[in-house]
Amino acid sequence: MDENTVMLPLKEKDKPIIQKLLSAGCCARCVLRFCCVSVQAAYRKQPEETLKELQMFINDTENDKCQDSVALDSRDDYKSKDAAESETSEDPPNKRAKLETSITDVQSEEEAAAVVKSKDGDSRVCVVCLGILQGLCGTTQAIKIAEAVKAGNYEFDTLVLSVSLPAQLCVREHSCWLYVKKEVREKGLVLDKDDVIQVKEAFKWIMQGMVTKELGGIAVVTKVSPFEVSVEFTHPETDADCHFLAATCPDCFKPTKNKQSVFTRMAVVKALEKIPDAKFLKHYPCPPTQPTSSCSPQVQCLHVSVFVAGRYNKFCRSLPQTPWVIDGERRMESSVEELIAAPILSAFRADGFNFSSSGREDVDVRTLGNGRPFAMELLNPHKSRFSKEQMKQLQETINQSSDKIKVRDLQIVTREAMSRMKEGEEEKTKSYTALVWTQKPIQREDISFIDDIKDLTLDQKTPLRVLHRRALAVRQRAIHSMSTRFLDSHHFYLRLKTQAGTYIKEFVHGDFGRTIPNLCQLLKTDTDILELDVESVDVDWPPPVPE
Q1: CA dihedral (421, 424, 425, 431) positive or negative
Q2: How far apart (Å, rounded) are the C-alpha atoms in residues 429 and 164?
Q3: pLDDT for 300-335, tens place per residue?
Q4: Which of 154, 424, 427, 493 is most buried, judging by how many CB atoms fall within 10 Å of its CB?
Q5: Confidence (pTM)
Q6: What is the distance between the alpha carbons of residues 204 and 266, in angstroms, rounded to a whole number?
Q7: 157 CB neighbour count, 10 Å cutoff
Q8: 312 alpha carbon, distance to own chain's centre
């Protein structure tokens, strides 16, 4: 059914509200909101048609009242002639009551003038919605939204439409509510502010079907979708509307790091809940002043993050895990993170990423064996659907791009699964191989006792080399087992299976006594580490992908 043929579900109690709001400069759709009209089709009517119907509703009411008053006067005159002697000179009680009712219900000259002024069309910018439910809510805006979506070239099946409104709309709505509340109270009517339809809700009721049409039938859903189209409205002309609240309710407006302005929608709503009506009316006009311009809309598209996980090997002893920047100066030309991320970012056409892994190795440490688990959060990916074969091809692209790293088990995972990489991380074990130098000459028998040491507990004070980025603390870590392989009188290989988070280099050289016990104490000679390899990271995630 054509929305323009839908009759507005208005009631007798709505008449004084309609008169008040039209005189205040509200648009037709905001009038419906304050009349608590919850029929969605009513908002999809052309605003010009809605305005005409509202005016007819008021005019018909006044004509009926005039006719009723004339008929009543005639009956009263007839009655007075028959009973002239028995009647007093005063007006009959019923006639007096009727006249008083008519005078109260008839709109003031100012209200009538305002309603007449808007008969040619809803051309004024609404004092409440600032034009959002007028020219910014129709086919033209739906086309702009659809164009923004198409320009982004996203992959999606459904979308959710979200709306961000300027905080001052809350102030203007509150002002109009107080304006209406006075009229409602005088009429002895009951109207709950919570029943007033929100601007966001009305906007979505109107726009969802239009956007679906412009996108060729793609559903605009009301609940959950991985793809969100946000329409943000701003109105600099009236930004100062909120400022008086900072003086009247200062505790509601506290600066935050991530917010450019203290006048957030939430803070304004909180302040309006606290401020007494009389105080509000003292600082802000009721009804609100007429704006000269409409809001400015900005459309943004956002796809929920996609998460990719895998394992990486690192074969180079001059490659940091993440970009190495000191005092603003880059020290190495690349990193594990960048070598992995670049092809993935390009394939998913994402705006950015967050990289994490199960621990990290130093720049001069290799990661061998099955590799180290890693995960990437891809921000606002424009492409989000990949088959297992496509993921395999992407893995191959990464591996062919550099001989410094290799990736395996590359796969798309859920956000929830990401937590498994970090769960119980310190309880996991890691295996290492270290090339150790000793100051004193050694023989094979001098190091054989190390093979028998089990579950050695270390007290490790934060190493000097990481003290600039980690808090000073003493951490207990365990070396579960060790084995040695003699090379020559000053060198041997030491294999260790340790609790995750153990500082291996510091165990070998002692870190000036900051790790106790250490290999120097065990061998009664100074020792140092020349090379270190991570042989395995015993985290059973992500699951292996069959070749």
Answers
A1: negative
A2: 48
A3: 999 999 999 999 999 999 999 999 888 788 888 899
A4: 154
A5: 0.81
A6: 21
A7: 11
A8: 32
User: In this structure, are residues 366 and 327 in contact, taking their beta carbons and an 8 Å threshold?
Assistant: no
Cβ count near 536 (within 10 Å): 16
Distances (CA, A) of 279 to 178, 245, 276, 362: 12, 10, 5, 63
| DSSP string for 350-393 | -SEEEEEESS---TT-EEEEEEEEEEEEEES-S-----HHHHHH
User: Taking the chain, what is the end-to-end CA distance rounded to the nearest angstrom?
Assistant: 57
Closest CA relative to residue 483, chosen from 444, 453, 438, 446: 453
Say if CB 326 and CB 404 are below 8 A apart: no
CA distance 415 to 310: 14
Marked catalytic residue, from 362, 364, 528, 538? 362
- Give the largest Cα separation in the chain, rounded: 142
For 246-294, what is each residue's pLDDT tens digit? 989 988 888 777 667 889 989 999 999 999 999 999 999 999 999 999 9
CA atoms of 521 and 512, how far apart (whole Å): 11
Give the DSSP H or E segment for 278. helix 277-283
**Radius of gyration (C-alpha) of the chain in whole angstroms:** 38
Instruction: Provide the token pair at 250.
Output: 């200062």
Confirm if 455 and 434 have CB atoms less than 8 A apart: no
Q: Which helix (H) or strand (E) holds 477?
A: strand 474-488
Element counts in the chain: helices (H) and strands (E): 18, 16
